[in-house]
Amino acid sequence: MIIADHLVLTRQGRPILDKVSLRLVPGRFTVVIGPNGAGKSTLLKLISGDIKPDSGHILYGDEDISRLKPRQLAERRAVLPQSTSLSFPFTALEVVRMGAIAAGSLKPCEDARTALARVGLAALEARAYQALSGGEQQRVQFARVLAQLPTPVNEAGPRALFLDEPTSSLDLTHQISVLEIAREFAAAGGMVMAVLHDLNLAAEFADSLLILKGGRAIAEGPPQTIIRDDIITSVYGLSGTVGRIPQTTPFVLPQSRHPAPASAI
User: Nearest-5° angle of CA 200, CA 83, CA 136?
Assistant: First the structure.
């Protein structure tokens, strides 16, 4: 389990996160949602160890994250950021291989090829990363984190995937594929935390949702109890958007807050 307790982060006198707590549990897929600027990516960076909070603490099992060395952290969690830019002409295989090397793999090329195959890019392993489409680059980066953590559990315990907007550049087929792979990672005993903007994908794949607004936790729980008209209205300012088909699965249909002019109907 990963426990983040009362995390606070302030920048230039402005609170980015205000006493936010979260538990990542083996076997569960946790999704963080909320409007732009809510603090979602910042929370992910804090819990993954990329940045440090001003106060609060983060435990990986019974160890404080601040005591883990970079290699130990790399063996326990992998991070997919919102975007990644590369200046050097690496191939797709070389990019994915970096993930395997970061965690000390004894067979980095094999792990990299396995990961590329999982995301459907085995045929492009020799292609220059810069020559790939935006969606293909996103899938290469996802393969990199899979190569870093080829198994959801190792001798140190459950491992964690941190995914920041993993579907942002992908078509519908690959959006579903990436989230299915992430869900499989959790189902096999790992932990997954993802930041998503698509509420319908969040409702479909999340075991637990955390909603942030203005750096504060607004609600937390299963999608069936969290995605409600009153909460969506409070967080996003939209009303009458939530339906259920089938009855147990909520979906969100965004609607304009202003009626269309008669000439447009």
Answer: 75
Q: What is the DSSP letter of 151?
A: S
pLDDT in tens, 116-134: 999 999 999 999 999 999 9
Beta strands in 74-170 (DSSP E): 77-80, 153-154, 157-158, 160-164
Distance in angstroms between the alpha carbons of the first and the last residue of the chain: 53
How does the average pLDDT of the chain come out, rounded? 91
CA 162, CA 14: separation in Å to the nearest integer? 25
Q: Tell me the residue type at 136.
A: E
C-alpha gyration radius of the chain: 19
Residue (of 106, 110, 130, 129) closest to 118 by Cα position: 110
pLDDT of 219 higher than 80: yes
List of domains in the chain: 2-264 (3.40.50.300)
Residue 107 to residue 163: CA distance in whole angstroms: 24
CB neighbour class for 192 (10 Å; exposed up to 12, middle 13-18, buried from 19): buried
The H helix count followed by the E strand count for the chain is 9, 14
